[in-house]
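Field: COMPLEX_INPUT
Field: COMPONENT_COUNT = two
Field: RESIDUE_TOTAL = 336
Field: MODE = joint
Values follow.
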Amino acid sequence: GPLSERPLMEVRLGELHTWISTCDFSPQGLLGAVQRAWSSYCAKYIHVKQGGPAGISMLLAGYCLLSYGWNYQHFKRHRWRKYH
Amino acid sequence: MLSRLVLRAAPAALRALPPPVAVGVLHTTRPLHTTQQSLAPVPPLPEKGGEVRHGFIPEEFFQFLYPKTGVTGPYMLGTGLLLYLLSKEIYVVNHETAAAACILAVIVYGIKKFGPDVAAFADKLNEEKVSAAQAMKDETMRALQTAIEEEKKEQWRVEGRTYLFDAKRNNIAMLLETNYRERLMMVYNEVKKRLDYQVALQALKRQKEQDHMIQWVEKNVIQSITPQQQKESIAKCILDLKALSKSAHAAV
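Field: COMPLEX_OUTPUT
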């Protein structure tokens, strides 16, 4: 289909720049994008008849990574070595 | 998933058309519950979710790297990344690492041991809900089916209307006929009564006249018998009797 309508996973690396330029960065557009991403994630991993640990564990892993990233400055102080 | 997008887009597209066209289009594009295109029965949930390896890495990642790096590519990437983060201390090992490791071990052990049982229990709950709904649906279907048959029967009964009305018409004709004949009979009786009365009247009159005349004649005759005639008739009778007795005596 046309470039602006394709989801991110089907966009090639070379076309990424043009794809980003076609994106809608207004608040409604961003909100819509977030909603679409969330609903597609739910439809794929959570709203299934026989889901496994995959659905929540991915969310938890993402939460762990995010919280580590937010507290990185605090963790940097507890390094074991001075020179890497 | 794309089918679900299509299903979600269809009502909006239908609403965009002007109402009469939308209604017409609705009738043509939405034969109720006969084809796959109908909106009403929601498509069922997929059986299994997206494939995931080791619990939290989607399979698509491995497929994405397979053409260029083969099977071991993502694992090499993971190992290299891990060693890089540890050596550069971008990931700092502290007490939370130990805690995370313990928690992860416990969680993995719990899932491996109790996962299937919990899954079976949840499946049983789902199954009960679905079977209850299905039973209700079957019940309503059966009820509607019997209602349809009853309706068809009623429609068949309606065809007997003509016979019913014929019978009623016959009844009414019979009643009218009976009534007419009764009245005819009544008229005949009444007329006969009147005529009988006249006849009886005339008969009575004649009878009375006859009696009266006989009486009058008898009275006049008795009056006309003078005493002298009476004597003569008695003497004649005695003579006749004597003659008769003589003849009878002779016969004996």
